[in-house]
Prior knowledge:
- By secondary structure, the protein is α+β, with helices and mostly antiparallel strands.
- Helices cover 26% and strands 26% of the residues.
Amino acid sequence: xTIEIKVPPLPESVTDATLVGWHKKAGDTVSRDENxxxxxxxxVVLEVPAPASGxxxxxxxxxxxxxxxxxxxxxxxxGEVAAAPAAPEKQAEEPAKAPAAKQATGPIKTxxxxxxxxxxxxxxxxxxxxxxxxxxxxKGDVMAFLKSDDSSNVTPGDPxxxxxxxxxxxxxxxxxxxxxxxxxxxxxxxRLVDAQQxxxxxxxxxxxxxxxxxxxRSKYRDAFEKKHGVRLGFMSFFTKAAVEALKKFPVxxxxxxxxxxxxxxxxxxxxxxxxxxxxMVPVIRDVDQxxxxxxxxxxxxxxxKAQDGSISMEDLTGGTFTITNGGIFGSMMSTPILNQxxxxxxxxxxxxxxxxxxxxxxxxxxxxxxxxxxxxxxIDGKEAxxxxxxxxxxxxxxxxxxxxx
Length: 405
């Protein structure tokens, strides 16, 4: 029986997807539920599994095509797939050898995350030595190759498909490459420009002394991890402090829709995380009802999904407030851009020992600059400043977080 392999229903608000790459070609046999092709939307990569076992009769949509929900991708001739013949028995036992990295032969199987990493750096899979099972290439293999000397003088068998144009200028090392944006990068660019053109963005700053938070974290870190199985990070302190401040200033947790202000009586906080595909903001819902341990566990789970490409559109939508931490990259101060339709975003930065006057004495203290970018259309400067002051007070006296004062 002939079966049409179609684009599955796309996430809400997503109209189309880009066909990233086929794992099979016409004439190949496939097994039921085997991943056949990857589709990239604005935020997530969707895998299209085989609906049944059989043979790929025809590929309808080629790599790079833009497709919509319900479009036919390929034609499958249903039928049983013959099992691979068993390997012949060895005549004599060979001495055991230590596992070594090997170059895979034939078609090289890679995960969607590895393929995206190869494409971003214009690499052919045949360039990289795989250390995974059966010579499979891992993300670590790609990163190790990029750091090695081989990455600067290797020539791929075929030109990288993402490169549209290459111009060579006279003289050594004067190459230029024109590479199309990924859908994610293009969507990020679109949203950032839209935010700047729509909202009346303004940023206010404050600084916080993290002496007490660091002391509390150091004192209970080991016991916390032993009991809950997750590390006690700084983000849980900041997120909890932000939620308490949002309760005091509800307009900071609101959003704009036309000429209406939508006040949310729940606290779904987006936490910006970096991935191989770019910046993502998974949303952790009902943070006000979570313990520190529950929040840390959920944050770790979301970060892992962002890194391995399994994050869903549902994970990335519906937040009421966002926190971004440029400090992990060494940022001293920045002005974050709103994640619309939200009305505010909190920026954390690097912690530095700085001289501060405490009770008349100059002492070294672990200080961090905080930045709150807000939509001045609905949030007044007074509310924005008081919001940051509330966060500062709670972090400098963490007992406030327990007493919710």
